[in-house]
Amino acid sequence: MKILLLFFVLITSQFSFAGPTLNRFTSDGCSNWPDGSIFDSTLWKTCCFEHDISYWMGGTEKDRLKADETLKMCVGSRVHFMAGWVMYSGVRVGGGPGYYTPYRWGYGWSTPRGYKRLTPHEKETVEDELARTCFIGEEQGIIERSMQEKKLKPVPRFKFYR
Q1: Which of 17, 20, 146, 153 is buried deepest, with most CB atoms within 10 A?
Q2: Model confidence over 2-22: pLDDT tens digits?
Q3: Which region holds residue 52: left if phi is over 0, alpha if psi is between -120 and 50, else beta?
Q4: Count of CB atoms within 10 A of residue 85's CB?
Q5: Which DSSP symbol is given to 108?
């Protein structure tokens, strides 16, 4: 009986009963893909940054499809529609929630969530984390636009005085 109890304690100590936690938002640009062309090294990097916000927070299969299609259109509008299709194909094949990669669907969560709608508590956690995330210029605008599109609370604006 003692051995069974010890086994149970060891096994359950490996799991967190508090639920998954959300890691800080990160973006590596266009994962395993150039961020731009040889003439403009960041030509479509902002498309990937916006895509990373969606992948970081996760959600339903429909949410992922929308994020991937937005990436395809964004890249296609900056280069050529075929470049958008190539990137779209890559993320559709290699970005699913079943992979344990740093760029999978829902990569921000400490444990894989699959395709699930964010709970109200998870949405609040996402809002809080994005509000704490500080980027400058265009990337901050992308965060704010993404939050608005996903019907999340807006990021508070800070005023800097001299």
Answers
A1: 146
A2: 554 444 444 444 444 567 899
A3: alpha
A4: 13
A5: T
Q: Return d(Cα 139, Cα 16) in angstroms, integer.
A: 33
Spatial separation of the C-alpha atoms in residues 81 and 44, rounded to whole Å:
13
- Look at residues 86, 33, 57 and name the one whose alpha carbon lies nearest to residue 150: 57
Residue-wise pLDDT for 68-124, tens only, equals 999 999 999 999 999 999 999 999 999 999 998 889 999 999 998 999 999 999 999
Amino acid at 69: E
Let me know: does 104 contact 96? Beta carbons within 8 Å. yes
Say if residue 30's pLDDT is above 50.
Answer: yes
- Nearest-angstrom CA–CA distance, 80 and 157: 35
Please state, rounded to an integer, the average pLDDT across all residues of the chain: 84
By three-state DSSP, how is residue 34 classified?
coil
SS (H, E, C) 87-105: HHHHHHHHCCCCCCCCCCC
Could you tell me the end-to-end alpha-carbon distance of the chain, in angstroms, rounded to an integer?
69
**How far is the C-alpha of 54 from the C-alpha of 58, rounded, in Å?**
6
8 CA to centre of own chain: 35
